[in-house]
């Protein structure tokens, strides 16, 4: 191997490690659920990290046949909050992997 050339064995090991970490993160996200809320918890929406709905909980205090719009707004707000929580969880689990392998000092383009 010439000086300054990347160590292919090290690159392959890093790639395998990243693949394992990615698989682990995906497995964790596959079972993770998050809950969003609105109206100080009067409406809660539970979704998976992949944004699949799991449940809606509505406090009877906000069920008013004369004011359906408020309930609709609360459900929408809780859903938005749940989506933000799912995106944050995805970023937390996948973020470190999105940066790719550490190629610093290997003389590769983009390093």
TrEMBL record:
Q: Main localization of the protein?
A: cytoplasm
The record's GO molecular-function terms, alphabetically, read:
DNA binding
Q: Which Pfam families match?
A: YbaB_DNA_bd
Q: Does the keyword DNA-binding apply?
A: yes
Q: Which GO terms describe its cellular component?
A: bacterial nucleoid; cytosol
Check the record and name the PANTHER family matching this protein: NUCLEOID-ASSOCIATED PROTEIN YBAB (PTHR33449:SF1)
Full protein name? Nucleoid-associated protein EV383_0368
What is the organism of origin for this protein?
Answer: Pseudonocardia sediminis
């Amino acid at each position: 191997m010439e000086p300054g050339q990347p160590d292919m064995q090290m690159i392959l090991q890093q790639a395998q490690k990243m693949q394992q970490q990615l698989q682990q993160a995906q497995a964790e996200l596959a079972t993770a659920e998050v809950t969003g809320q609105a109206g100080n918890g009067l409406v809660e929406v539970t979704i998976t990290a992949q944004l699949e709905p799991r449940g809606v909980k509505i406090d009877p205090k906000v069920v008013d046949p004369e004011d359906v719009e408020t309930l609709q707004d609360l459900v929408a707000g809780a859903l938005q909050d749940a989506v933000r929580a799912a995106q944050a969880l995805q970023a937390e689990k996948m973020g470190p992997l999105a940066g790719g392998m550490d190629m610093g000092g290997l003389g590769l383009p983009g390093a």
